[in-house]
């Protein structure tokens, strides 16, 4: 069932982290992924993916959603 803003089943076309999988499972959000990994690196390869970094310390779906939105907004502003 949708949880936030009409959330639908999630597909991670590349990698997924165990923590992200736990958040989705606890919120009963179906998901698939190609490979489970402990780390997803950023585009430049010198650190963690900013979206993964934003939610790595929470297992609460509502908090994760809020953090992801804030991170997305910040990334877009920094890209200008």
Structure, explained:
This protein has 80 residues and is of the alpha+beta class. The protein is 42% helix and 16% strand. The chain has helices spanning 18-26, 50-55, 61-79, and strands spanning 10-16, 31-36. A two-stranded parallel ribbon has the order 1-2. The longest helix has 19 residues, at 61-79.
What structural keywords apply?
two-stranded parallel ribbon, 80 residues, alpha+beta, single chain
Enumerate the strands of the largest sheet in spatial order, edge to edge or round the barrel. 1-2
**Biggest β-sheet: count, sense, barrel?**
2 strands, parallel
| Tally of strands | 2
Topology as a string of helices (H) and strands (E):
EHEHH
- Beta-strand percent range: 15-25%
Low-pLDDT runs: none
Task: Quickly describe the structure.
The protein has 80 residues and is of the alpha+beta class.
Question: How are the SSEs placed, and which strands pair?
Answer:
Layout: E1 10-16, H1 18-26, E2 31-36, H2 50-55, H3 61-79
Parallel strand pairs: 1-2
